[in-house]
Amino acid sequence: MGVPLLDLKAHHEPLHQEIMAAIEQTFRSQTFILGPEVGKLEEQIAAYCQAKYGIGVTSGTDALLIALMALGVGPGDEVITTPYSFFATAGAVVRLGAKPVLVDIDPRTFNLDPGKIEKAITQRTKALIPVHLYGQSADMGPIMDLAHRRQLAVIEDAAQAIGTEYTDGRRVGSIGTIGCFSFFPSKNLGCLGDGGMVVTNDPDLAERMRVLRTHGSKPKYYHKLIGGNFRLDTIQAAVLNVKLKYLDQWTQRRQENADCYKQLFQQSGLIQKGKVQLPEAVYRISGVKHYHIYNQFVLRVERRNDLMAHLKQKGIGTEVYYPVPFHLQECFRYLGHQEGDFPESERAANETVAVPIYPELTLAQQAEVVDAVATFYR
Ligand SMILES: *Cc1c(COP(=O)(O)O)cnc(C)c1O
Asked: Where would you tag: which of 176, 199, 215, 327 has the fewest CB atoms within 10 A of its CB?
């Protein structure tokens, strides 16, 4: 029958009327730039992430850019981050003339290995960007200790991790100096196009980002700062105000699907034979079995590329996030890295594959995915 990697049609169908009503209402209001819908979303997302302030922006990419701009990152500065993430994490740093300094990942979580950060800090280091990849928190305890000790800002790239909690129950995005979110349609909370948000507990940074979002102008036509047009569309905010109400229930479905995959893969014997390794929800919160919001369910497998070809033939959607770590990207050749510099990131890039985990996935579809994987190794 086939199973897509993501089924947006199934996701949006039950909300069709409600979303259309929100768009209709925005159209009637003729407010297309900022306005009450954006304000309401900012308040709600900030509260959801346990942060004081939220500022709606054009995308997750621009969320990273505006966060770095607000912190004054520029030429001569270094920003420490992971080699294994979506391109924007490092791209935003370079666009401001700063240098990304890479630190390898913890193979269990695919996130920055905190034990390797200190060696990478220099006089020029200005900030750290941990990424909460696939929906699981980076190890924020030691990262924040180090940041305080060395007086570094921390920008959380939480694009894939809205609502994720760290071991202490704090939600990602509000742990560091600034948290960055994306509403790209494939994220757990997606809009009908591009959108993003930054959150912070710092009133000065919040004000700076608000001003930077509209070309640094305040009052209108008077510019103390050089910003850009980083505004979240009102229509997208209206859609997100509808969708946010359902986010917890979607997250729960993703977590149930993850539990179900665990059972099915156990029964298949593939784990015992070492053919497939499941993602590990490493951080446990008291009373909660795992806290991972599974934006992606990423397997580590034997003969990855052949398995993908096999699954494609069976109509099962998969994707490699991300096949080329930053240090091996052509555009970052000037950084002077070579193969072998970040072995865990390289291993992750070569051995992993994402399988469908979206909230509307049925038990039958999950069984189909696991059967197809089992057939390949038989
Ligand atoms: C999606 C994503 C971004 C960028 O978000 P956009 O809204 O697509 O610009 C940044 N970082 C990570 C880790 C992402 O997954």
From this structure: 215
User: By the 8 A CB rule, do 375 and 361 touch?
Assistant: no
For residue 281, the model assigns a pLDDT of: 82
Q: For residue 62, give both structure tokens.
A: 């621009």
Q: Please, where in the chain does CATH 3.90.1150.10 lie? A: 247-377
Of 213, 159, 222, 155, which Cα lies nearest the Cα of 188? Answer: 159
| The pLDDT value given to residue 288 | 67
Pick out the chain residues at pLDDT < 50: none
Q: 347, 340 in Cβ contact below 8 A?
A: no
Task: Mark out the alpha helices in the chain (DSSP H runs).
Answer: 8-12, 16-29, 36-48, 60-70, 88-95, 140-150, 203-213, 234-243, 247-268, 304-313, 343-351, 363-377
Question: Can you name the CATH fold of 8-103+111-244?
Answer: Aspartate Aminotransferase; domain 2 (3.40.640)
For the chain, residues classed under CATH 3.40.640.10 are 8-103+111-244
Q: What is the CATH number of domain 247-377?
A: 3.90.1150.10
Is ligand 1 within 6 A of the CB of residue 297? no
φ, ψ of residue 296 in degrees (nearest 5): -135, 150
The reply to whether ligand 1 has any atom less than 6 angstroms from the CB of 61 is yes
Return the CA Rg of the chain: 21
Ligand 1 neighbourhood includes 295 CB (under 6 angstroms): no
